Amino acid sequence: MCFQIFLHFVRNRSTTAVGFLSVAVYRLPVLKTYMENTHQKKTLLGQRQNLPCIAPLLTTVEETVQIISAQVKGHIPEWLHGYLLRVGPGKFEFGKDKYSHWFDGMALLHQFRMEKGTVTYRSKFLQSDTYKTNSVGNRIVISEFGTLAFPDPCKNIFERFLSKFERPAMTDNTNVNYVQYKGDYYMSTETNFMNKVDIETLEKIEKVDWSKFIAVNGATAHPHYDPDGTAYNMGNSYGPQGSCYNIIRVPPEKVDLGETIHGAQVICSISSEEKMKPSYYHSFGMTKNYIIFIEQPLKMNLWKIVTSKIRGKAFSDGISWEPQYNTRFYVVDKHTGQLLPGMYYSKPFITFHQINAFEDEGCIIIDMCCQDNGRNLDIYQLQNLRKSGEGLDQVYNSVALSFPRRFVLPLHISENDPAGENLSPLSYSSASAVKQSDGKIWCSHENLHHEDLEEEGGIEFPQINYGQFSGKKYNFFYGCGFRHLVGDSLMKVDVVNKSLKVWREDGFYPSEPIFVPVPGAKEEDDGVILSVVITPKQNENNFLLVLDARNFEELGRAEVPVQMPYGFHGTFVPI
């Protein structure tokens, strides 16, 4: 999700910053298996009517500090022993001040604990400095991505005017994802701050500042991991030479028990094509040997961001979709830090989440959820999401849907390769990589779906069997279907035959699906899918859903009588 963009640059004009743009018999849910059907009528993308209001899913809730027991229906596998941890915005106002954008809400941490077929639940607001400062002031003191904090009303007019020129405080409202470094868990967004947390108590332990360790101001909320625990991430830097995208490596183990991200290092810096308008990115790809960075035409106008407070605008005002630029792929050897010479381009698109990437026959294959229009960020203003009736339909019908696509990047490019030749040797993919007369490689994607996915509203929040298949050739991924502004179904996609399995229950909205393998699993999809499913219906409970990942049938659910907002990301931690 996108968040505070350039605050550190505002405070230290020649230092660093990073973009922060950063979902049984007893209920009979709808379960469909879709195969290719050539006679299906293609629906007009995004055109839906009479959408139900989801405003209760995007309003402030109370935290559930005391552990409560969930009511299990069906069964929860007894081997499933661990925590499902999730995070997202859960408080949208302080006093009379209200946040404008969904991404701005204060981080609410959720914990479902599973043990011997039972489930408990608790939640807590992250006690970030931002949360505590706003609470003490009973107003929004620190600006967020889409909300500009106003001057203290107790100041006189002259003092309020001068405050426009003060250095803005950097938010540490880390509400996007749980990330892991050296065995510890941190709440992350895309600013320079992370908050280390105790996953058992959900208490904050320590605030960590990336810029105290390396010359970047922040990192994405979607790092990648090698099997030994080495973590890779990306963050931006800004200085006299322009903007750079930096690849970060964090070692897998601590030398001292008190360490956080000590030993982190930048292994490669990539200059942006435009010094003052670098691209926003939310994630990146990684194979066994390479990092893949995608420079897309969602631009951060640094001058607008630097002057946002003076101009009375939120940071989001500096983000713009500029499709006159093509999308470019950069490939970096993650062992040496060397940027490969291949210049890979495609038509303009935007991606927030990678699905997977792997190497085969001298190529990198990278799969992503892609949109052809990057203007969606403005749509997620809370006033839009909380609409009803025709107004809500109009908002949804203006959204660009997201679809899974595959790109192929040949690694071994020769000057002797003739222009106009497709350099991809892969017989199983229609994606092409055609050399141009100027030496650039023009990449055209393969759709990893049929028309049925269009009828499901596209797909986002992709997840795979990460522990066994990240960076490897794979068959399946899981995600949320979007026939509403938030996910309204869960899907399993077979990327080989492009078939779908869909779980849906009318009036319920599932979160990002998390795959958990069965102990000793032999097959890629031998496990379960966990998703937190919520509803605006006052007479229904929210619940943790457990699906058999193979046939996508419900095994059980654990209901809790607690109001929950729709969130972003999470993880499963075995115990």
TrEMBL record:
Highest taxon above the source species: Eukaryota
- Tell me the protein's name: Carotenoid-cleaving dioxygenase, mitochondrial
Q: Which Pfam families match?
A: RPE65 (PF03055)
Organism name = Marmota monax (Woodchuck)
Q: Which positions are annotated as binding Fe cation?
A: 222, 282, 353, 569
Family (UniProt):
Belongs to the carotenoid oxygenase family.
Catalysis performed (reactions): all-trans-10'-apo-beta-carotenal + O2 = beta-ionone + 4,9-dimethyldodeca-2,4,6,8,10-pentaenedial; lutein + O2 = (3R,6R)-hydroxy-alpha-ionone + (3R)-3-hydroxy-10'-apo-beta-carotenal; all-trans-zeaxanthin + 2 O2 = 4,9-dimethyldodeca-2,4,6,8,10-pentaenedial + 2 (3R)-hydroxy-beta-ionone; all-trans-zeaxanthin + O2 = (3R)-3-hydroxy-10'-apo-beta-carotenal + (3R)-hydroxy-beta-ionone
Q: Does the keyword rRNA processing apply?
A: no
Give the note describing cofactor binding and stoichiometry.
Binds 1 Fe(2+) ion per subunit.
Q: Which cofactor does it need?
A: Fe(2+)
- Indicate where this protein is primarily found: mitochondrion
